[in-house]
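User: I'm writing a tutorial on reading structure tokens. Could you give me a worked example: one chain, its sequence, then its tokens, then a sentence or two explaining what the tokens reveal?
Assistant: Sure. Here is the example chain.
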Amino acid sequence: MSKINIDRIVSDLRTRTTYITPLVEAVCNSIDAIGSKADGKVDIVIKRAEILPEMGGRALADIIGIDVIDNGIGFTEDNRESFDTYRSDMKVKQGGKGFGRFMYLKYFNDVRIESIYRTDDELRFRNFTFGRGNNIIENEKEGLAAENAKTGTILHLAGVKKGAIPDKGLEVIARKLLEKILVFFVDPKSPAPTIRIIEDDNSDAIVLNDYIGDDEDIVFIGSSPIDIIDKDSGELLNFNVQIYKIYYSQAVSRVSLTANKREVTDTALHAYIPEFQETLFEVDKNGRQRNYSVKAYVIGDFLDKNVTVERDGFTISKDEGELLSSVSEKYIEREAAYVVKNKFFEEMSRRFEEKRQRVENYVTHKAPWNRTLMSDIDLESMAMGISEQEMEMRFQKAKFEREQQIWIEIKEIESRQEEETDEDFDNQVSELVGKISNSSKNDLVHYVCTRKKVIDLFDILRKRKDDGTTSLERDIHNLIYPMGRNSLNIEYEDHNLWLLDERLVFSTFTASDQSNFKDDNDAPDLAIFFDNKSMYRQGDNIATSPICIVEFKRPKRTQYKEGENPILQACHYARKILDGKYEMPDGIEPIKVDKNSTPVYVYVVCDIVPKIMECAADTSLVLSPDGERYFGYLKSYNAYVEVMSYRSLIETAKMRNAIFFRKLGL
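And here are its predicted structure tokens:
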């Protein structure tokens, strides 16, 4: 045959395989060689390096080689010629790719065959080495075998490449191998031979077959067919899903696509059915709880025909929507996942109901603004352990998509405005109005709920702490309007001026603890400016536009310095503004005011204590009937003054919002 560069083929292998892959290849070849032989057996012999004294008596030495021994028909002449042919098609019907021999060389430097086979009238042996140069077979020897010899093959895998076999324990290797070839063990047409994995010194042995059975670690719970139509060809593709419970595995439940009874891909079941994400368990007849995972294997001719030569993937597209094929890996996996879900229908339904209740509780108790979006949320795809933050992100995504659809429909209606009005057009308009209304309700509910949380927080801040101290003035200040910020660098939703007065929310320029006084670093707690028509300044610098000054004092504060008067302090800031010392935010010009015509509103927020009563009396303010506020007009400042207690502020805010809270059950 023509020469091939074997080392180049091996070095070019870029696969998702592990050292288990050549073991699977070897075991499958042995099973093929054994066929229907009643006493068929395969031994996987683990060879280890010598245990050094410093490693300790119980240490497991590194694996330096593996022998795979079977009692099959051996390397017959036909098998030998097929092996010596690159990409041989001798075993095409069994799924042979003529490529597996190169996978051995990816993980082992020295690979050899010792085999005994029978011709028509005699037993013969054949030994050779896997070539690494230009020849597939090297150092071949053959001749007559001893008369008492038995047919079979020994595959020597030696010279383990560095880091190729990280596992050491016999049981770990056995279970990893078993899960790759599990489908061989439930095929009634060709039952699997006895497969053992043993130590070279016979100190330990595991029979893979013993893991499988009704009372064992792996239980076959049934199979189900699925049919998928290839949209390109119209062909009906038949698959079978074999489902197992695996009790020893701590891994998540998975679905695997197979080819020629060998696992090729492995995907978490919860990628399609989120309810499988959490651990499954059952109570056995002895009252003992046993955890388990589910493993589903998908078998079908379509997969056999489309597996890659390395058996690490398929030639079909991975994701739905790709152009290579109308049948993708994900589509097959999803259909198989639904089959598995039906096998565990009762448990999955219970878990789904728990998830639905959790989402509904979140909406009811923490996010009622999402109530109208419940029908837009795909609960099926939602993870079992989804956080409240992730829930809210899903709701906001649904809200965005709904609003996008509304805008699309608005554009459609706009394009039909000049057409004759008909019943369909009227219905479309009515439906759109309903959608807009629901979207607006959602925003309103969210806003009202936010107000409730702000009020609750304000109540907490005005109470004494466990250590007897009170919240600082800046805590209250920041809650109402963040310090050091102004309307140019803060969003409407980021302040709570409505706590003071609903009219204040209409201002679009507010400075919080920022000095805009020319040549003066002094600053009021809040300076708020309005337009004379709509109560806010929006670019227009007009002398008749009102201004507002807010001064906060620490909750529970009872002591003030001699001569300190919070009312006059706030009015002092107002006077400086009326004197033209306050500049526009850009600093281009001073705020235009008129001492006689610019209205000034002053709010002082503090607890009503004797000192404040004294200050109010000095400025001739009038006490409200409930004793929680003072009102008055100071002509010298052209200022309307209101002193309010923290209690009055919050109780008034609660009263203004009470009907909204009541309607939402807050």
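What the tokens reveal: The mean pLDDT is 81. Residues 423-461 form the longest helix (39 residues).
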